[in-house]
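Example 9 (inverse folding). The structure is encoded as follows.
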């Protein structure tokens, strides 16, 4: 009898939490979301989710003479739901042209959203597209306003840009002759130079399939410098846990470093790791200082256990 009673209580609790998780988004909240985002949404009553889609005319261009319907999925979107622990939760995605990516990342972070993924999404010969994933918790008003700021930043970039940028990539150095000594001193690392290109890496350890893996199996933060000491191109990848991702992205953008992708390399590892690919152009010393700044932010956060806003 006791076991039946416990099972009954568990079932009641599960129903309660399911109902709480799927609490309705009120008509008032839906109207507020529409007014703040500038989009007209649809409500899925079964899931208690209000979803707003923002088609992008620029993103539907396949070639100069051909375009696709925005219903093909070439759009930005945001979805809102009521939750147990917060008034609202948001998930969403910005569909971006390459020159919009880093400005929108900066605005989204400053607006309080979590940036959780960035990947290339181009399928055709038109403009190169990126999808930027965001989440957030708070009030409907704050979340809708935060997402709108990202949309407004897209419009600002498009107004100021002279044309659609198809290939917003860094200039490729024709020859490389990077001096290792000054970079080693700034980074407190011992890098190697091969063919004039400098590379340094710091390993991390994780458990994957019950086994320990580290730097040589891809669990590393690394940076490479090409070009000359005065005019260098740096690119690399930071490895970070989900708890530290927002701080890492803020640190990169604070120094004007471009973020190219945010993704996983493995599944099921412990701790979970996210890999952030980046690039920048400047003198080699200035790039090294920016990289060191981000490393110091990571080390300080790890030492203090703090993941507060920088």
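The amino acid assigned to each position is listed next.
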């Amino acid at each position: 009898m006791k076991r039946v009673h416990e099972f009954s209580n568990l079932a009641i609790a599960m129903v309660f939490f399911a109902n709480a998780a799927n609490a309705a988004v009120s008509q008032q909240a839906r109207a507020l979301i529409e007014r703040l985002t500038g989009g007209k949404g649809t409500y899925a009553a079964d899931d208690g989710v209000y979803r707003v889609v923002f088609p992008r005319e620029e993103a539907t261009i396949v070639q100069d003479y051909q375009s696709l319907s925005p219903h093909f999925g070439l759009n930005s979107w945001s979805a809102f739901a009521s939750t147990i622990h917060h008034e609202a939760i948001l998930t969403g995605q910005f569909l971006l042209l390459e020159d919009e990516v880093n400005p929108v990342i900066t605005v989204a972070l400053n607006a309080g959203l979590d940036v959780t993924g960035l990947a290339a999404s181009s399928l055709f010969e038109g403009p190169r597209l990126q999808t930027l994933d965001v989440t957030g918790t708070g009030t409907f008003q704050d979340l809708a306003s935060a997402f709108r700021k990202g949309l407004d930043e897209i419009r600002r970039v498009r107004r100021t840009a002279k044309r659609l940028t198809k290939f917003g990539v860094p200039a490729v150095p024709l020859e490389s002759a990077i001096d290792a000594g000054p970079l080693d001193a700034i980074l407190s690392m011992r890098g190697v130079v091969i063919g004039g290109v400098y590379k340094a890496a710091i390993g991390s350890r994780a458990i994957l399939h019950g086994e320990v893996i580290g730097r040589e199996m891809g669990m590393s933060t690394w940076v490479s410098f090409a070009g000359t000491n005065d005019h260098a191109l740096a690119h690399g990848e930071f490895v970070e846990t989900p708890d530290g991702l927002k701080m890492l992205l803020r640190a990169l953008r604070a120094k004007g470093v471009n973020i190219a992708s945010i993704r996983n390399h493995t599944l099921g590892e412990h701790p979970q790791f996210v890999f952030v690919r980046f690039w920048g152009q400047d003198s080699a010393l200035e790039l090294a200082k920016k990289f060191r700044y981000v490393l110091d932010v990571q080390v300080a956060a790890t030492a203090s256990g703090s993941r507060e806003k920088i």
